[in-house]
Every structure is written in structure tokens, then in C-alpha cells.
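User: Working on a comparison across species. This one is beta-lactamase from Pontibacter mucosus. Can you predict its structure so I can line it up against the others?
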Amino acid sequence: MAQTSAQKVLRQQTEQQLAAIINRSPAVTGLVAVDLTNGDMFSFNAEVVFPQASAIKIPVLMSMYKQAHEGKFSLNDTRQVAAADAVGGTGVLKDLDGPPPMSIRNLGILMITLSDNTATNTLIDLVSMQETNAMLRSLGAKHTLLQRRMINAAASGRGEENISTPADAAKILQLLYKGEFINKATSEEIVSILSKTDRQTSRLAPGLPDNVPVAFKPGILNGVSTEWAIVLLPERPYVVAVMESYKVKGQAERTVEELSEVLYQYFWRMGNATRYGTYVDPKLIK
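Assistant: Here's the predicted structure for beta-lactamase from Pontibacter mucosus:
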């Protein structure tokens, strides 16, 4: 009779815990979490298409870097933020009295770290939806589409939504972590910017110890919550793409936080224990 390994049992238990959390929620919930040391994956509703809210700003940032690499502009070039680009929601540019010209790089940093919608609209006009979507197709993210500027309810109502799937988001995050988007230096710069996002805006972060770095971008719309994240756990880094739609107000409001806690406990144990479950110095694990 074949023996069952303790690691296999732990994985099965973790998958059951994740499924229970997802099934308790009335929302449609998608999750992909990938072990960056061996590619092992937890996957729930991975191919379901979800609105992305501000998480779509990661592909916009990537398109900005790609086109700069191709010589279409320099990241040090400046852009004047037009009055037509100013929109509400998150960010600071909308509140400035005549914002000065800003470098393209700094607009990208504002777009991610402060989720500045005005900076985002300026960059969408620069990189174009068509070029960004072509880039996404070339990366194999076929279900991820940039279809509208920020804060455009009319476009959203017409179905012109910015969309992706947990599978696509996880694929993109793995490329960035592995240094496979354009080149290692560019990938690392993008991850560095994602690491500067205010941790208090993350729904995954409450499931992590404060000393575990996370590079992420969340997004929120009415009835929708998304987050793309690289959890830089030293012993066992992993990516998480979690998405909710059709949320019911007042119900299952901590789904993402609970999923994050279960994932962290699993990956920490996988990174700090032998295959039999004994905790040792990770440097000694073979």
C-alpha cells in the first residue's frame, strides 16, 4: 500500500480550508496562488473574468516600461497633466492647483503607490489601450483587457470594463518576479514600485506578519474587490491573485484576509520544515 506524505496531507488540508472560505461567501471568488520555488498552484475559478478596478494599473505600468525600452519615449521625459485627465477617486494630482510637468516615471509611481487616477489617465493616453492590450496578448494574458480610462461609469455601464482573470494575473506576477518581463532590471524596478504601495490598502497584508514584504496592487469597485500580489516570504515566496465580484454588503467581508492567512501558514510551513514536518533552519533543508 502506497504511503501518503505529510506534505501531501498538508496541501490537501490547505486546499480544503481555502475552498471552505470561498464557499462561505455569496460573492463570486477567484483565487490563484503559486509557489515561486516549484510552481505548485492553488486554483479556484482561475479562468473567470473579473473587473479589475485599480489592479489594471499594473499592466499600464508594464506598458509604460515596455514602450520606454522600445525607445518611444524616455521615462525621464515630462508630461503636462491636462485638465481633461483630472478625475476623482484616489490620488493627489486632482487636488493640486495647476500641477507642474512630471516625469513619466513619477507618473507611474503615483499611479501605483497612491493609485492616482489622474496620473493613470495621463499614462493611458500615452501608452494607448491598443498597445497595452497587444502587450498583454504577447505575454499570454489573453483575457486581460484595458478598455477604459479611470472613473468612467458610462463606459463601465456599456460593458467597457477593465478585466482580467486570476490565472492571467498570476502569470503576469510570475514574469515580474522571475525577471522575465523585458529584462531582470526592468522587472525588478516594477516590483520595487509595487512594494511601495501603502500596506494599509492591502486586504492580503492583514494575513501576513508585518515583517513579510509584499509587492501588490489592490482594486475596489462597487461589488468588486481585487488584489495582485507577490508575497516576498524569504523561505517560500509566492504570488496571489484574488478577485471577488457580485459581493453582498455585510456578508463575508473578510474573505480575502482569511484566504491570505491560510496561504501564509501553508507557505511558511513548507519553507521552514523538512518533508516530515519538523521545523529546522531553512538553510539546512534539502
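For your comparison, note: Residues 56-164 form a domain with the Beta-lactamase fold (CATH 3.40.710.10).

User: Helpful, thanks.
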